[in-house]
Amino acid sequence: MKRKQGIEKAGGKLGVLIPGLGGAVSTTFMAGVEAVRSGISAPIGSLTQLGTIRLGKRFEGRVPAIKDLVPLAELEDLVFGGWDIYPDNCYEAAIKAGVLNRDDLQGVEPFLKELRPWPGVFKREFVKNLSGTHVKPKGPHLELVESLREDIDSFKREHGISRCVMIWCASTEVYVEPGEVHSSLSKFEKGLKENDPAISPSMIYAYAALRSGVPFINGAPNLTVDIPAMTELASKQQVPITGKDFKTGQTLMKTVLAPGLKARMLGLTGWYSTNILGNRDGLVLDDEGSFKTKEQSKLSALETILQPDVYPKLYSDFKHKVVISYYPPRGDQKEGWDAIDIFGWLGYPMQIKVNFLCRDSILAAPVVLDLVLFMDLAQRAAMSGIQEWLSFYFKSPQCAPNLYPEHDLFIQLTKLKNTLRYLMGEEQITHLGLDYYYET
Ligand SMILES: NC(=O)c1ccc[n+]([C@@H]2O[C@H](COP(=O)([O-])OP(=O)(O)OC[C@H]3O[C@@H](n4cnc5c(N)ncnc54)[C@H](O)[C@@H]3O)[C@@H](O)[C@H]2O)c1
User: Would you say the CB of residue 291 lies under 6 angstroms from ligand 1?
Assistant: First the structure.
């Protein structure tokens, strides 16, 4: 299968719009991009910046960098802007987030100080443990949408920007079941007019983005664009959407290990995952409602990878528990513990322990960069609606309603790279390989 259409060039500036501009992930991401642009640092962890892609047969030796194969925006062309419910400039916010040390921040201090968030759309019912002071005046939903769209327009005008991408790096909202108002675009728009309380701030941002023709990425587990109303709007506006919940620490490890156990037909009796973290994200998740949103997202991967229905002897009865504890002394340096109980030949039990002392935002920052660049590519390649090929980056990948999401990290990577090959009219790599030995 070969791609027929061309892809628009990535000329000019790309605006990166971030709800949650002053958060740990956002400030670490922007500080890192500036450090890379200034030649102070390398973009470790970023597939778009460091990854390669094999093309053609193994003996051809064609392995270009991904960024040399597909036309991605240059880091120099990224311009940042966004909203937060606290007024700190991004330097002050980065100091408070405590991810990067003062020495590393010094090199990018003037750049971060220039970045000041616009007042956010905020409703305390959706994030109970924060009380924002830098918020837009309370008003009808539609007024808030218009105010966000004006922010986007003036940002574009001020910086001479032609294209934008919006990425939600704001706090996790409380758990919301998809309801009637989310079920179609017409019902959602009626709900907007009537200020329906089931429309969350993240949905207001997403609606404003899509109406403005801006692709939307959801880095948190909130529903946001994972509702029929938004998929309908994305198709109508011909804009790509993707989410949800960046796959960074514990779930990254889970989606590496679980496919390995399944590949060898080893059984599972239980997987106990616990985390301690002390950043603002941890504070937000200390609220039951926000935790439930995160818990649902973290629980979904194992079940889908292991397929208990297909392998009842191995996976029909495993216990999966996820605990997140807010523990301020750890700041952003989360500690994850996984106790995994497996069984092998003749049912003999074995155990695996994973103790990941990670840095949440250090893992998330390159994911944000890749998603921004790939979503801009998708927009220029006229790929609208759900971008399942970006599942690689998410804990709860959004996919078409009649499909189950793909969680296995290596299948996700194959899907991503095959999509890039497809876009560039290159042959898909199936890894069959028999043609190296026989005539097929
Ligand atoms: N760090 C990771 O590894 C990781 C992984 C997966 C998902 N996430 C998600 O990414 C998001 C950001 O994480 P973080 O560690 O930077 O959290 P953070 O608390 O440091 O940052 C979130 C920012 O969003 C702001 N905010 C909250 N509601 C807002 C609103 N309505 N409008 C504008 N700004 C708003 C907060 O003031 C804060 O500055 C969270 O939802 C988190 O669950 C992070």
Answer: no
